[in-house]
Amino acid sequence: MEFNTAGLISLQEALDKMRAYVPKKTAQDTEYLPLAAAAGRITAAPVLSPIFVPPFDNSAMDGYALRSNEQRDGAVFPVAGKAFAGAPFHGEWPAGTCIRIMTGAPVPAGADVVIMQEQAEVSEAGVRFTATAEQGQNIRLTGDDIKQGDSVLPAGVRLGAAELPLLASLGVTEVEVWKSLKVAVFSTGDELQPVGTPLQEGQIYDTNRFAVRLMLEQLGCTVLDLGIIRDDPQALRKAFEEANEFADLVISSGGVSVGEADYTKQMLDELGEIGFWKLAMKPGKPFAFGKLKDSWFCGLPGNPVSAALTFYQLVQPFIAQLSGHSAWQFPPRLKAKAVTPLKKAPGRLDFQRGIFSTNAEGQLEVRTTGHQGSHVFSSFSQANCFIVLERERDSVSAGEIVEVETFNALLRS
Ligand code: AMP
Ligand code: MG
């Protein structure tokens, strides 16, 4: 079976067009936050270390500190003092003596070597060493790891559990981050009811606003929820205008097809400018992107699977770019053996929901979650990856190799 896919743009073209809209950020878009409040935010400038790491010369071993030029075969060194981590030795220590030292303790002034305790024989008279050490041995020098003023994180990095403790270890108290993106969201459809309201005949619950809000919050956005908007041009115009007033990015769902109650595209055309509409992608064909007066606009399809998928594949990277994240990426795609047949027709890039695992031979395998209809949201909760089937590919038989893309944190539980 062949579909006419003329006029549909590819996912890659769509992503490229959206990226082309991303402006260069200016200094006005940043703020300083204490470390504890900066989780999930993105650095707006390189973070420089205020200190040297380590901040002082210290011992890498439990052992004895001495002057390397005093080492002689059989010499015995009386112990003149002790240096512990957090309790440095400050006294005088005569020539020919040594200082007992523990790992992490500051090396006493004058010492230029530490000999580990495993190479020491201790008697009443002092310590005799069974090995000699080179100058500097077992001493971690000031600034070995990081110099004061070194850049420890570039701009454009998302701050998480791998980054914030590093900054804490340097005594950084606050960090310059991009302001969080303001996003307005609404659902359209006369049939929609908010969760918590009884359903009347012909009504369904509004899944998309719930899903989109959740994902926006995970992406660190500030959300304005405008609720459910009826399929009425007046009401929609008002929602578009209010959303545009508040937000950097406006996201709607539904009404983006070609039905009689589908006004989204008309509104975008009237109040702004259509960037593109209709993707050669399944699910998710009716996706609209464009610009309103002061904001960007993404019109998600109504079907919940299509809405979640287009949000994930198109809006998520766009938000990352608008938020100043410079190296944002999807997880790399992997090759896996399909262990179930996969139904597909050529014409659109297909994102089926799959479950991948490693078999007894250590090879990646993937199977379908079953029915792939764009209203079957349970396919997301059962899946751990997308099976990405190329645009021109036909149905897949069991045993064929396919590409899988594991879910990132947005969809992983
Ligand atoms: P539409 O694009 O508005 O024609 O919607 C396509 C399908 O998705 C219809 O079956 C709608 O009832 C359904 N739908 C639209 N919006 C939502 C929503 N927010 N939550 C759940 N289903 C929706
Ligand atoms: Mg609708």
From TrEMBL:
Catalytic reaction annotation: adenylyl-molybdopterin + molybdate = Mo-molybdopterin + AMP + H(+)
Occurrences of domain MoaB/Mog (ranges): 184-321
Signal sequence range: none
Record has Transferase as a keyword: yes
Known EC number: 2.10.1.1
Superkingdom of this protein's organism: Bacteria
Gene Ontology annotations of biological process type: Mo-molybdopterin cofactor biosynthetic process
GO cellular component, one term: cytosol
Keywords: Magnesium, Metal-binding, Molybdenum, Molybdenum cofactor biosynthesis, Transferase
Essential cofactor(s): Mg(2+)
Pathway of action: Cofactor biosynthesis; molybdopterin biosynthesis
InterPro entries assigned to the protein according to its UniProt record, in alphabetical order: MoaB/Mog-like_dom_sf, MoaB/Mog_dom, MoCF_biosynth_CS, MoeA-like, MoeA_C_domain_IV, MoeA_C_domain_IV_sf, MoeA_linker/N, MoeA_linker/N_sf
Enzyme class name: transferase
Molecular function (Gene Ontology), one example: metal ion binding
Pfam families reported for this sequence: MoCF_biosynth, MoeA_C, MoeA_N
Protein role: Catalyzes the insertion of molybdate into adenylated molybdopterin with the concomitant release of AMP.
Classification via PANTHER family: GEPHYRIN, MOLYBDOPTERIN BIOSYNTHESIS PROTEIN
Similarity remark: Belongs to the MoeA family.
Name of the molecule in the record: Molybdopterin molybdenumtransferase
Organism of origin: Rahnella woolbedingensis
